[in-house]
Amino acid sequence: MMGVSEIAKSYEIIIVSRFIVGICAGLSSNVVPMYLGELSPKNLRGALGIVPQLFITIGILCAQVLGIRNILGNSTGWPLMLGLTGIPALIELMLLPFFPESPRYMLIQRGDEKTAKKALQRLRGWDDVDAELSEMRLENLSERAEGHLSVLSLLSQRSLRWQLVSIIIMNMGQQLSGVNAETVTWMPYTSIACVIIYVIGHAIGPSPIPYVVTTEMFRQSARPAAFMVAGSVHWLSNFTVGLVFPFLERGLGSYSFIIFSFICLVTLVYIWLVVPETKNKTFLEICQMFAKRNKVEIKLGDGDLPLNESKESLEDAVRVTAF
C-alpha cells in the first residue's frame, strides 16, 4: 500500500499502512518468541530465542542501507523502498499454513494429544517423543486449577508475583539501556563501526533475553497474558526513551548516558540476585524454582515429589497452596 501512495497522490495511504504495519510488528514481536519457545527443546531454547531479534536487527540494517540517499533514500526511490516491505509479508503469508501448531498449545490448551504428538514428531524428526509429552502432561496437571489467566488475573496471582516483576524490570532495563538513544548526524567511520558492533552485540545478547525468559518463567495458561504485559512495558519504555532523550541530551550532553549506565547496573544487580539459571530446565522445573521466592508450594499428589518421581505418577492431581 505504501508503495502506491505516490501514484495515488495520497499521503493517507502511508498513514493507514504504517498503522497496520505497527499492529503487525507489535503482535509479531510477542507471538514469534512465544511460538519458538514452545516449539524448542529445552537445550536449544535460548539459542533459538535470539533468532527473532537477530533478524530484526538485520532487517533494520538492510532498511538503513537501502535508505541511503544514493540508493533509494531520494525523491524517486522512496516509493520502491516502502513497497519492498510487502515482499517479506507476502512470503510469510504464503508459508504460515505450513507451520506446525505448537504441541504444547495443542495438548495443554486444546486437549488434542494426537495432534500434539504428530506436530512434535514432525519438529524433532523422530517418533519417540514420549518423554516430552510426559513433561507436557505434567505441566497440564499442574495448572488445571488456575485455568486460562487474563492480564488482570495474572497481576493478582501470588504464585507468579516475582516472575511478573522480573519480566517488567528486564524489559524496562532492555529498552532504558539507551540502545535506541542516538541522534548523531555525523561521526567518523571508526565510531560508526563501533556503533554497529554494539548494536549487533546487543541483538544477540541482552536484547532477546527478556523474550526468552518470559517464555520460560510462565506456564502455558499464563504465557499469553505475560507476553502482553512484557510487550506493553517494552514498547512504552521504547517510547519513553524516544520522547525524553532529546531533552536529556540538550541538558546533559554526552553525560546523559550516565543515566542509562545506572539503569543497566540496577538491572544487572536485579538479574544477578533474583533471576535463576533456566538453562536445560523444563517450564515446570522453573516454576518450582520460583515457588519459594513467591512463598507458595507446588505439591504433586499427596506430597512434595521431585519432578523425576512425579513424571511416573501423572494421574496425581497438582495443587498450588500458600505457605
TrEMBL record:
What is its membrane topology? Multi-pass membrane protein
Q: Where in the cell is it found?
A: Membrane
Transmembrane segment boundaries: 12-36, 48-68, 80-99, 186-204, 225-248, 254-275
The UniProt record lists the keyword Transferase: no
Question: InterPro entries from the xrefs?
Answer: GLUT, MFS_dom, MFS_sugar_transport-like, MFS_trans_sf, Sugar/inositol_transpt, Sugar_transporter_CS
The UniProt GO MF terms for this protein read: D-glucose transmembrane transporter activity
Which residue ranges does the record assign to the Major facilitator superfamily (MFS) profile domain? 1-323
What GO terms describe the biological role, i.e. biological process, of this protein?
A: D-glucose import; dehydroascorbic acid transport
Q: Please provide, in alphabetical order, the Gene Ontology terms of the cellular component aspect for this entry.
A: plasma membrane
Q: Which UniProt keywords apply?
A: Membrane, Sugar transport, Transmembrane, Transmembrane helix, Transport
The answer to whether UniProt assigns keyword Membrane to this entry is: yes
A UniProt-annotated Pfam family:
Sugar_tr
Q: Output the superkingdom of the source species.
A: Eukaryota
Protein name as annotated: Solute carrier family 2, facilitated glucose transporter member 5
